[in-house]
Task: inverse folding
């Protein structure tokens, strides 16, 4: 008996050990099943997009017998969809680059350049995170119309140029960079611009990557502001065009799902490539 | 000749240099250095300050002014004082849109919290393929709300959506989901919870990993069962992460819009008309920008009040080790 307890083999496990093992197997089964359920909508989106004509009257098969790309061809023929993809890509890239610049410069000021009233200014910056876009939509629309920027890329871009979230994120990262590095560079005669460029930025690369992913994702997925400011069809972004597709082709689900696949793919690629930075960014947000 | 000019130049340069060096009042150079420093600070701040003032703070104040006018975005605005607010407060529709929004939050928050916690607890144990599983659960987070809404509209399609097809296979007649006033909000809640589950899971997982495992082990040695350990040790230590999830979820929940717009457009029969959908419709369908701005400010006040109450109340239940 005691020998069996000391060297548990498959046959000789104690009931307690067997219960632990059973619970562990059950846990694995449940968590994997859950992951399959979570993943299923993506699979179904892909399958529907590859099952021409599906959704009109029938539910597609779980594994399409005759998969085809008809829905994708129709999508690009019937609506200016390539244009929408291009618009979204252009806006996302510019937003990301500009936000990296405005966030990094502001973060440097809040991390390295003491001045009177800095705490108050930083507080005001943070407070802008609390203001919902919805409150701003009407006056922003009026303002940009007064500037003649409705229905222009610039009109869609300008309000995204500075984001308190990015400033906060980069300031946290800069505060982790030892001041001794600045001082060493200053002794070599470097001014603030050189220290910023050659000392600080190279040391916060992971935070810059996190911000880049979030800025790109925010722009690529944003809906309300592009919907409001880009009214003409050839300027529509991908999410807006997708929402419009639904009205036009209510029952042609294969086309709508093909559009969804195209919208998901770039984010999926970025996510697979930068998963570490995305998850770290979210996890850190919760710890602060 | 050249030497003369050169000498003269050297003399001038030398003298001016001398003057500069000998200039007795140091405040001047200190002042110029201060100016240079101020300019440096400005150079670093302006790229972000200009857009924030022009496109966030300015419009915020403008929204307050617009909310006191009657305006259809075209004709000149007419000052009406607090009429828009009075109208909103007496209109039963205002109560309805807030009620629908609260319905959304009440359905959504427990679902993502309990679901996210369960997955985080499971992934926090020694599990094979943990990174892959975490990646799969997180995937919907990077998808846009519009895609989520469209995909779920298709999954929950009353006639040939996959959910009702599977239910039919088991002999259950599925509901009309988003086409049925009673099921439309649950449909939106389901889709939203699917998208945000991974976000909540990652925050709670980070919180769980910060908990000292010795504390949980000590409770186990003392004979505390799994549920007892969860409620007496894990959850109290997880309260800062829980607090963050609740605050963020409430702020986002009150602003729910994209998925509603794409899934139901506020319908059927206004069953899912939430506050922001109402703001959008008032502005761009009914030409009542003044009333829309007033409703925006009401919404902002509600969000602010709810957030402040939570921050005040956190002392009672949030445990910062």
Result:
């Amino acid at each position: 008996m005691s020998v069996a307890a000391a060297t548990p083999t498959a046959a000789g496990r104690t009931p307690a050990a067997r219960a632990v093992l059973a619970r562990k197997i059950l846990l694995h089964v449940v968590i994997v099943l859950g992951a399959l359920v979570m993943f299923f909508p993506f699979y179904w989106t892909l399958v529907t997009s590859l099952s021409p004509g599906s959704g009109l009257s029938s539910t597609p098969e779980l594994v399409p017998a005759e998969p085809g790309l008809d829905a994708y061809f129709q999508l690009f023929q019937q609506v200016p969809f390539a244009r929408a993809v291009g618009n979204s890509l252009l806006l996302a890239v510019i937003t990301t680059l500009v936000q990296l610049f405005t966030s990094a410069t502001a973060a440097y000021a809040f991390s390295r350049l003491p001045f009177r009233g800095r705490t108050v200014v930083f507080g005001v910056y943070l407070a802008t995170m609390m203001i919902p876009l919805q409150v701003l939509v009407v006056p922003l629309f009026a303002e940009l119309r007064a500037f003649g920027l409705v229905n222009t890329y610039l009109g869609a871009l300008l309000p995204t140029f500075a984001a308190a979230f990015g400033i906060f994120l980069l300031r946290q990262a800069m505060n982790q960079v030892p001041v001794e590095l600045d001082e060493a560079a200053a002794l070599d005669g470097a001014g603030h611009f050189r220290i910023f460029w050659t000392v600080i930025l190279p040391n916060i690369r992971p935070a810059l990557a996190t911000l880049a992913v979030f800025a790109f994702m925010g722009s690529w997925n944003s809906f309300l502001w592009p919907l409001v400011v880009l009214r003409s069809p050839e300027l529509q972004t991908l999410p807006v065009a997708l929402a419009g597709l639904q009205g036009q082709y209510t029952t042609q689900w294969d086309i709508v799902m093909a559009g969804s696949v195209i919208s998901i793919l770039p984010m999926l690629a970025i996510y697979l490539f930068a998963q570490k930075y995305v998850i770290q960014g979210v996890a850190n947000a919760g710890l602060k | 000749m050249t030497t003369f000019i050169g000498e003269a130049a050297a003399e001038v340069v030398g003298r001016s240099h001398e003057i500069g060096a000998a200039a007795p009042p140091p405040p001047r150079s200190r002042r110029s250095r201060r100016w240079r420093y101020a300019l440096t600070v400005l150079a670093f701040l302006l790229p972000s300050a200009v857009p924030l003032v022009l496109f966030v703070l300015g419009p915020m104040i403008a929204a307050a002014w617009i909310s006191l006018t009657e305006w259809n975005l075209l004709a000149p605005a007419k000052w009406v004082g607090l009429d828009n607010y009075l109208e909103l407060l007496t209109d039963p529709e205002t109560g309805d849109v807030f009620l629908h929004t609260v319905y959304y939050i009440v359905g959504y928050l427990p679902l993502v919290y309990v679901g996210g916690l369960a997955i985080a607890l499971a992934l926090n144990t020694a599990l094979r393929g943990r990174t892959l599983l975490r990646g799969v659960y997180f995937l919907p987070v990077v998808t846009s709300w519009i895609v989520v809404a469209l995909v779920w509209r298709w999954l929950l399609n009353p006639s040939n959506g996959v959910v009702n097809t599977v239910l039919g296979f088991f002999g259950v007649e599925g509901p009309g989901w988003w086409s049925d006033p009673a099921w439309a909000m649950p449909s939106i809640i389901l889709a939203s919870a699917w998208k945000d589950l991974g976000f909540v899971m990652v925050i709670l997982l980070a919180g769980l990993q910060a908990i000292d495992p010795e504390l949980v082990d000590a409770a186990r040695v003392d004979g505390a069962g799994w549920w007892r350990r969860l409620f007496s040790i894990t959850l109290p230590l997880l309260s800062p992460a829980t607090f963050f999830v609740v605050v963020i979820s409430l702020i986002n929940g009150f602003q729910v819009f994209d998925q509603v717009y794409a899934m139901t457009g506020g319908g059927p029969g206004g069953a899912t008309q939430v506050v922001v959908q109402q703001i959008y419709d008032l502005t761009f369908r009914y030409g009542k920008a003044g009333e829309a701005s007033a409703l925006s400010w009401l919404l902002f006040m509600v969000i602010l009040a709810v957030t402040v109450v939570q921050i005040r109340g956190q002392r009672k239940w949030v445990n910062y080790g």
Q: What stands out?
A: DSSP finds 13 helices and two strands in chain B. Chain B touches chain A through 93 residues (CB under 8 Å). The first strand of chain B starts at residue 69 and ends at 70.
